[in-house]
Amino acid sequence: MLVKLLLITIGITYTSTFFSGFATYWVSDAIFPDLIQHTEGITENNTTYPELLPFFTVPIPPVIDVMAALVLAFMIGLGLSFKKEAILVQVVKDFQEIIIKVIERVIVPLLPIFILGIFSQMTFNGKVYTILSVFLKIVGIIFLMHIVLLLIQYLVAAAIAKRNPFKALLTMMPAYFTALGTQSSAATIPVTLKQVQANGVSPDIAGFVVPLCATIHLAGSIMKIVACAIALMIIQQIPYDFELIVGFILMLGIVMVAAPGVPGGAIMAAVGVLQTILGFDQQQVALMITLYIAMDSFGTACNVTGDGAIALIIDKIYKKRTMHN
Predict the structure, then answer these.
(1) Cα dihedral 315, 318, 321, 323 in deg (nearest 10)
(2) CATH class for domain 2-44+65-71+125-324?
(3) Residues 169, 154: contact at Cβ < 8 Å?
(4) Cystine design at 146: which of 138, 165, 302, 305 (Cβ 3.0–4.6 Å)?
(5) CA distance 264 to 297
């Protein structure tokens, strides 16, 4: 029974995440071209001014290819899940702690300086105002999309669980606002658990679904990344098609599993996919990071609140199977 519930939960979670990604693509592809039609050429090199160059650079080539690293990481992770007594398990856990410390103590604190440099370059070339004015509109559209996504999730969950969708969504608001502050699905788990149970979900199911969804349910995060990526490609006239975006979204759903627990973790996990699949350069990745972090709060809140909808569905399935047995 537990294995079946696990598989059902994973299936529903990824359905929600991929629905968010593809719906975001369709909305972005329909709306953004008209919104950005006056920005053609804004990212072309300005020949009037010299380019701002760093005083020095420290080139650090990757040890292995990005995609090879992702495949190796998942291969080792899946393998160790079947050999929990292996010596390599402790090595991997220690390495995980090192990476988390590097992200928290080095990369995240230095990101503002890196972003400052990128925006200084754009300001020097007269591009920053146009780019930011466009992306302010993009952020507004993404905010509306995440509200619509939550309504869809709770309308579906309420129809299955025979609940009032608006009452269920309002009950989850404490978790939503907590996530706005913590910017971490993992840190919001205690509040999410409490509000999910307040929606009538049994404690056992809540304790099973909420921690799992905090790790793999990233509908809000994938929405932000896909929307910002599409907007950036339209602005810089980078060609794309549906086949390219399908691979991008599917890979995002996999690599972002490593993101929860670290503010801004989703976009950092997605950097490799942005570079290898969409071909983004350093400046484009920096813009993506800037935009994502600016919206990180309500993206995480969308993830957390959506967990409550999934818990309602799983609880209904569990009770139905229990009564049947």
Answers:
(1) -70
(2) mainly alpha
(3) yes
(4) 302
(5) 9
Helix (H) or strand (E) segment spanning residue 148: helix 128-161
pLDDT higher than 60, residue 46: no
Residue 148 CA, chain-centre distance (Å), reads: 17
Q: Which of 282, 267, 294 is nearest to 135 (CA)?
A: 294
Residue of 122, 134, 115 whose CA lies nearest to 28: 134
Tens-place pLDDT, residues 210-219 = 988 888 888 9
- State the Cα–Cα distance between residues 285 and 275, nearest whole angstrom: 8
Q: What 8-state DSSP symbol labels residue 64?
A: S
**Which is nearest to 217 in space by CA: 9, 4, 47, 7?**
9
Amino acid at 215: T
Residue with tokens 């992200």: 103
Quick one: DSSP state of residue 262? S
Q: How far apart are the first and last CA of the chain?
A: 11
One DSSP character per residue, 157-170 reads HHHHHT--HHHHHH
**Structure token digits, residue 41:** 């050429």
The pair phi, psi for residue 266, each rounded to 5°, is -65, -45
Residue 26 CB coordination number (10 Å): 11
Share of the chain above pLDDT 90, in %: 27
Q: Name which of 96, 66, 92 is nearest 80 in CA terms.
A: 92
List own/partner pairs for 189-193 with CB under 8 A and 24 or more apart: 189/214, 192/304, 192/307, 192/308
CA dist., res. 325 & res. 321, Å (int): 6
With beta carbons less than 8 A apart as the criterion, state whether 126 and 46 touch: yes
Q: How many CB atoms lie within 10 A of CB 237?
A: 11
For the chain, what percent of residues have pLDDT higher than 70?
A: 91
| In contact, 275 and 159? CB cutoff 8 Å | no
Stretch 282-295: mean pLDDT, rounded? 81
Q: What is the DSSP string of 182-234?
A: H--TTTTHHHHHHHHHHTT--HHHHHHHHHHHHHH--HHHHHHHHHHHHHHHH
* Residue 180 exposed, middle or buried by CB count within 10 Å (0-12, 13-18, 19+): middle
